[in-house]
């Protein structure tokens, strides 16, 4: 940009065009106690709705979550057929959301960044909306990718699609789930298309190391939330989402540089006009 007095300066571009956020145990801490309540509801659903032997359910629940990203996806992979809305209503609809309180600190941090922000969660839309409402973050995000986004009604996934195949740590191939969800690469690729995201200009925040490691493979920069331990695939590690400014000052530096350039341009224009 050039002015009559010869002043010329370009507004610096941010490294990132998008901030991509998980919801549960990411936007709020694990210590809130909501996660154990969700697990209890899942176990109760498996016993009461699917007639799975109670003594086997806790271990089975944990293993399916480990193998498939969500217990729900694992149950469907094993051939259990149930209504998705009924499952979400039972598992999420009965959660004690009063555990979550408004978070003005996070709200202020998010609003201080003029960068596009997108939610990417395995949870259903109603759960995501309720969590954002309880945290006071409803107006902080530009788009939401959730269970219904990735798994619309009547969607048929090809049996030949191996992008969400599960392999155990010992190398055994597990049944493929019809549910599309993190940590599988196809869920990330679908999210990129739906929200028009360039992964190479996006940074991803999640509490799951498996999700983080897949994200890194897709080209995303990554932030592991809830731990300060840097592991493979982790670019930044935060004990809390509140530490985002300390860990990623460059996000705010680009904002401040843009502001400084705009102020300089304003002065240049005024000088030119007065001359």
TrEMBL record:
Coiled coil: none annotated. Pfam families: Hydrolase (PF00702). SUPFAM superfamilies: HAD-like. NCBIfam families: HAD-SF-IA-v3, Pyr-5-nucltdase. This is HAD-like domain-containing protein. It comes from Cynara cardunculus var. scolymus.
């Amino acid at each position: 940009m050039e002015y009559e007095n010869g002043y010329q300066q370009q507004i610096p571009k941010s490294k990132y065009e998008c901030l991509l956020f998980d919801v549960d145990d990411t936007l709020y801490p694990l210590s809130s106690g909501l996660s154990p309540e969700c697990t209890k509801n899942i176990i109760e659903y498996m016993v009461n709705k699917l007639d799975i032997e109670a003594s086997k359910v806790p271990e089975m629940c944990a293993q399916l979550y480990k193998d498939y990203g969500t217990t729900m996806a694992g149950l469907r992979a094993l051939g259990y057929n149930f209504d998705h809305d009924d499952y979400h209503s039972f598992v999420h609809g009965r959660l004690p959301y009063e555990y979550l309180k408004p978070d003005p600190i996070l709200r202020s941090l998010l609003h201080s960044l003029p960068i596009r922000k997108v939610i990417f969660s395995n949870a259903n839309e109603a759960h995501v909306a309720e969590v954002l409402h309880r945290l006071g973050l409803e107006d902080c995000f530009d788009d939401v990718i959730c269970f219904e986004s990735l798994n619309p009604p009547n969607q048929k996934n090809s049996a030949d699609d191996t992008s969400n195949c599960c392999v155990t740590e010992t190398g055994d191939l597990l049944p493929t789930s019809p549910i599309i969800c993190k940590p599988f690469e196809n869920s990330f690729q679908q999210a990129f298309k739906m929200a028009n995201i360039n992964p190479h200009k996006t940074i991803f925040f999640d509490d799951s190391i498996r999700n983080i490691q897949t994200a890194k493979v897709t080209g995303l920069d990554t932030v592991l939330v809830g731990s300060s331990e840097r592991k493979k695939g982790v670019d930044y590690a935060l004990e809390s989402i509140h530490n985002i400014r300390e860990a990623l000052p460059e996000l705010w530096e680009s904002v401040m540089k843009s502001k400084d350039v705009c102020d300089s341009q304003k002065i240049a224009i005024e000088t030119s006009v007065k001359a």
